[in-house]
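Handout, section B. The chain below has 467 residues.
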Amino acid sequence: MAENDIASMGHLMRRAGFGAQYHELEARAAKGYEETVEELLNPQDHPDGMDLDLAERYFIEWNHFIRGVPEYIAFRMINSARQLEEKIVLFWHGILCISDSKLQSYPTEYEELELFRHHGLGSFKDLLLGISKDPAMIYYLDNCLSHKGAINENYGRELLELFSLGVGMDGEFNYSEDDVKECARAFTGWTIANSIPQQPYGRYAAQFVYNPDDHDDGEKTFLGETGNLNGEDVIDIIVKQPATARFISRHLYNFFVADDVEVPSWMDTPPRDPETIKMLEDEYFRSDYNIKSMLRVLFNSDAFKNARFAKVKSPIETIIGTLRLVGDWTEPKPGLEFIFDEMKYMGQEILNPPSVEGWHTGKEWIDGGTLVHRINFTADSVCNTSFPGIQSIIEKLAAQAPILSPEGLVDGCLKLLGDYEMSEETRRMLVDQNSKGGEVQTDSEEFGAKVGETLRMIVATKEYLYA
């Protein structure tokens, strides 16, 4: 099996999932790249590999009403065999944002994540329709306060600005203030029955309700089309716009391929890779707005395959990827709340993005405080040789030769982390640090600790911030 096959699979699993241990990369590489892409894109055809029933019996607060607790979401990200299904939940959670700081209802928030889980790889048109009827979104962006003759523009504005069209493209605005108002009018009557239940329990779940008596059925003109438009008509018009194809394509590129400028700059800043964005735009229309089809084209493209380590890992990607690497939290045990706290300290709190704009990504994840938490968490995890994933790395290295040179130990660790690439300067620094003890016997008592210390140094490098 070619080393490049493992490296390509490591890249794919870091982007289309939350990373994988080396034995999984070997198995997937043997299966083939394109077949693995198809498996990831079709989660419904494969078991999720989780015993959630056992987890819910252990964590009794997870069942029924409060499955939406962040720890439950993290447990799924760590253990689901349907890695892209969980990754797409995170993708949409950062775009079609709600926040627990306002909702304070984990059950309602959980239902939105379920919407992403079941429809996030399908038609963008269906997803927009689903999110427009989602009780969490209706409450979060005040559409339940928008009435015929007294509109609330909040949802109409964010639907256009942050969920579909974007403010502008190629220096031109994509919509007007009149379009915002007409959009809000079209969504009057889209409301909820029962107030959002407060955590941890509520007597009744909130439900979407269409109230025709509160719907403004007058003539409207939206993006140049005139008629007695309702919310579904508005969504039909939105998804046909070239600006929507560009907006979704740039989001997919920024999340799965390489860091681009932040969304507020997209109106005046061209895409980092115009050819790839054009390819995605074309597939958006060819496939009738299908996200799975767009990702299939993307994952099989040279642009994606050549974009290794071009993205700063988000805090959630860092933590979930580390836990999958070391093999921790494969079954329920006390202390899972610690994971959620670490995400928050690094700057990304599940279910609580800082605003409806979501999180700023790329290098904005990194500052003095969050960097310390990031390095401490990953370093403490990988040097713990009691974790099964680290034991596996030690065993594989020991099987290579009875004695490993400093270079062999560093290169072996980088390979077993998923073929991580380091600059020659960083690699030389790692080798020099390992050279102080000279060669190491792989059957010695100190070998495990030596591997753990080498891994600790690797995850503290600048290069390890990237995926």
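Note. Residues 1-35 form one domain. Compare this with the example in section A.
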